């Protein structure tokens, strides 16, 4: 991950904008009927997903600190090496890379989850993020950006996108459950009215007899 000030600031601004647009559209879809807005809503979230990729591409495709490219094809090697140090803190480059590679694709995963509604939205989002991250890693090596082309970066990016999609799935399920569940007070009130009507009808029949 690069640390170019202008690119990072621009990336943060775009990420905040993408999250704001996504949250606004999410509220609209949650308030509307389940069948509302699959076309327009998906188009909006598709745009948000592409917008959320801009910070990821700006940072991962910028020049790194190294002068030579290196390939790390052993899964979890860099993750375990960074986790093995007891003195790892937020100032450690390896720790920042680990956390950053996860967080970079969380906004993309959250937006993409609305593009593919259904039970497999997390899986589809994760597979898309994995293909995208693998493409970026290959591009880093081909462009000689002085970075480590690592399979761990693909795993971390995929995890971040899957996390964003999972959070959206949980949020939409909770919101829809609340919207479809009638308030307890209104339900009890309706039950009381039915009981009262039944008593009135019964007393009317007895008086007529």
Give your account of this protein's structure.
The protein is mostly helical. It contains 8 helices and 2 strands. Helix 1 runs parallel beside helix 5 (106-115), helix 5 (106-115) crosses helix 6 (121-142) and helix 5 (106-115) crosses helix 7 (151-180). The protein starts with a helix and ends with a helix.
Approximate helicity band:
over 70%
Shape, per Cα inertia axes? elongated
Enumerate how many helices there are, as a single number.
Answer: 8
| Rg (CA only) | 25 Å
The sequence of SSEs as H and E is: HHEHHHHEHH
What attributes does this structure have?
single chain, mainly alpha, 8 helices, elongated, 209 residues, two-stranded parallel ribbon
SSE layout and pairing:
Layout: H1 5-31, H2 38-60, E1 70-72, H3 77-84, H4 93-103, H5 106-115, H6 121-142, E2 148-150, H7 151-180, H8 184-208
Parallel strand pairs: 1-2
Quick structural overview:
The longest helix is centred in the last third of the chain and has 30 residues, at 151-180. The protein is mainly α.
